[in-house]
């Protein structure tokens, strides 16, 4: 029996990346989302980027219409995204920083420097009934600012841990652990994501405060070899394994 099971949100952005490489309609990210749901995913995440490089507007509309598990709508804090999110009202949204030139979301949101703007932005989303999470680095000042701003959850960026080598790996894991504990102490629900794979997921799952992981790129790559369903089930087993040793 695994106590305190972590929810798994499956990010399907890169199914759309492959589809868009040929400009057609397959592989269909909504089909992948429905398969993830069948395989036991607790939620689906999709990032509608400003440049629409993977997920498109119609994907989000179809995901909202067809999924029975919650959609976590990843978005930059722009006026355009605010209009879309308040119109579609997904179960939750995760605000991420976005730069056009980056390959993926490279760092966490700077909540400290953008405090006033984000406060107003989050309150507009909340008024429309959208629950908001902020994607931040495991940094105490960013966590404090997120709490003061009024969100009830944050997602800690696991990229630095995943990419770290040698002794730095432990340093980064400790940052995640301290960050997650701090979130818990101030009453923030805490999620994690970015770059997680079979090798790194167990150690992060051992940090007891995390309640949800959002994982995409690795799962979609693995799905090429073993199928999406098995990739998700194997990830689930490893996440549970991290919790069993607690
Ligand atoms: N969480 C957030 C906020 C992200 O921006 C991403 C990447 O889109 C992920 C999780 C998933 O990261 P990955 O695709 O590397 O698993």
Explain the overall architecture.
Helices cover 48% and strands 17% of the residues. The protein has 246 residues and is of the alpha/beta class. It has one domain: TIM Barrel (Alpha-Beta Barrel). An eight-stranded parallel barrel has the order 1-2-3-4-5-6-7-8, surrounded by six helices. Strand 7 (189-193), helix 9 (201-205) and strand 8 form a beta-alpha-beta unit. Helix 2 (29-38) runs parallel beside helix 3 and helix 10 (217-226) packs across helix 11. The longest helix is centred in the last third of the chain and has 18 residues, at 168-185. The protein is globular. The chain starts with 6 loop residues before the first strand and ends with a helix. Pyridoxine-5'-phosphate is lined by residues 11, 13, 47, 74, 94, 96, 104-105, 135, 155, 193-196, 214-218.
């Amino acid at each position: 029996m695994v106590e305190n099971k972590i929810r798994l949100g499956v990010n399907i952005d890169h199914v759309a990346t492959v589809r868009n490489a040929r400009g057609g309609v397959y592989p269909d990210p909504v089909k992948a989302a429905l398969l993830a749901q069948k395989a036991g995913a607790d939620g689906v995440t999709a990032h509608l980027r400003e440049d629409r490089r993977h997920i498109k507007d119609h994907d989000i509309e179809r995901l909202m219409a067809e999924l029975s598990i919650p959609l976590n709508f990843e978005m930059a804090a722009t006026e355009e995204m605010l209009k879309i999110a308040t119109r579609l009202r997904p179960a939750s949204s995760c605000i991420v920083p976005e730069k056009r030139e980056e390959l993926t979301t490279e760092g966490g949101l700077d909540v400290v420097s953008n405090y006033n703007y984000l406060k107003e932005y989050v309150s507009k989303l909340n008024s429309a009934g959208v629950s908001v999470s902020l994607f931040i680095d495991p940094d105490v000042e960013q966590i404090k600012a997120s709490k003061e701003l009024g969100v009830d959850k944050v997602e800690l960026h696991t990229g630095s841990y995943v990419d770290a080598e040698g002794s730095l790996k432990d340093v980064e894991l400790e940052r995640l652990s301290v960050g997650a504990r701090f979130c818990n102490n101030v009453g923030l629900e805490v999620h994690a994501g970015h770059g997680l794979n079979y090798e790194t997921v167990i150690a992060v799952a051992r940090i007891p405060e995390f309640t949800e992981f959002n994982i995409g790129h690795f799962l979609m790559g693995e799905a090429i070899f073993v199928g999406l369903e098995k990739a998700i089930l194997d990830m689930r087993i490893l996440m549970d394994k991290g919790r069993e040793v607690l």
